[in-house]
Amino acid sequence: MASKFPLLQREDERDTEVTWEDQQRINEFSKLNARYENLEDRYKREKEENEYLDDLLVDIELLDEDEPVMYKVGDVFIKLPLEDAQARVELDRAKISQRVQGLDAELSATQAKMDELKKVLYAKFGQAINLEKS
């Protein structure tokens, strides 16, 4: 009996049983996808902060060497000699660059795991499953 409202095309109407292992793969993919999105957000924020620090270093180079620089530490600003301020900004930038590289590596590893799961799940379920971002 044909359905009044077919949701899948005829080729996708296969009755594929979802096994416990399949459900575990789907759950793992879902967790990895959520993790990927969180990592991506953190990566964007850290990369933006790194760019701000790059711009700040350029701006600091244009300042007069004799004038102290107001440097924010937590919620407080302190006056620092120009060289000390440059050193602190460079140190902060190096730390953030290291975090950006770590996040990039985590993103790549997570994407690779997701790609593996996609291959397995699409091979079994075809168009009956959607693992793409909307």
Automatic annotation (TrEMBL):
Pfam families, A to Z: Prefoldin_2
GO cellular component: cytoplasm; prefoldin complex
InterPro entries: PFD_beta-like, PFDN4, Prefoldin
Protein name (Swiss-Prot/TrEMBL): Prefoldin subunit 4
Example of a GO MF term: unfolded protein binding
Entry coiled-coil feature ranges: 26-56
Stated family: Belongs to the prefoldin subunit beta family.
Keywords: Chaperone, Coiled coil
Transmembrane region(s): none
Signal peptide residue numbers: none
Biological processes, Gene Ontology terms: protein folding
CDD domains linked to this entry: Prefoldin_4
Oligomer and partners: Heterohexamer of two PFD-alpha type and four PFD-beta type subunits.
